[in-house]
Amino acid sequence: MSLLVDPASIRIAPLSRAHAEDVATWRYAAPYDVYDMTDADPDELLDPVLGFHAVLAGEELIGFRSFGPDGRVPGWDYDDAALDTGGGLRPSLTGQGLGRSVIAAGLDFGRARFAPAAFRVTVASFNARARRTVESLGFEVVGSFAARRDGQPFDVLVRDEGR
Question: Of all residues in the chain, what percent carry a pLDDT higher than 70?
Fold first, then answer.
């Protein structure tokens, strides 16, 4: 899908079955293939407990955001002091400077919907693009760890919502 995205058109919406089935086909080029969604079960993506939402530009699915346990990577001692948030961008749209607008829209939505004291993101340590993006949105590193499943290093960043 080749798509020009107006950052002002980005919004968060409920994840539909068609969105979940689309997301479950997403593959990324190495080294970002750790984020491939091809093992995702659309039924699980639709489970409200996991907190998945669609990121739309107009009516086009350009990404997803999650709020809650999906944003956690086994290996860190997570607590409830912050709301975990994660997400992904359609593979064909990565590296085009959309990440900041997409994450900011997700944070605005999460703040309005969940009113957390803080947000927390977990980012693969090699992913300098994502780290720069979330740091530009006010996140600060609080620690690093090795993922339990494969030893991959991750960084945990938190943004206080000033409540």
Answer: 98
